[in-house]
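Data availability (excerpt). The following record was deposited with the supplementary files.
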Amino acid sequence: MYRFAKAAANLGGQAVRQVRHGSTAPENFHSKYGLGVLVSGAVFCSTVWGYVLTQTGIVWNLSPVNRMSPKPWRVAEE
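Predicted structure:
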């Protein structure tokens, strides 16, 4: 078990060194592209939902308030 733990720790150390020194992604990806990705995602989401709400013909289960009225009360006959 000791050998396994030592090997696992060594692999973890190697991964940290690889990420620190050999990373191919720039460190400032979010500051460089973050706003563009956020805005394009918001536009895409809004466009898809706009299409779904207006063009697909889905009948949404909206509230029946002010669309239904109660039936008149019937007095029980004796």
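Summary of structural features: The two ends are 88 Å apart (CA to CA).
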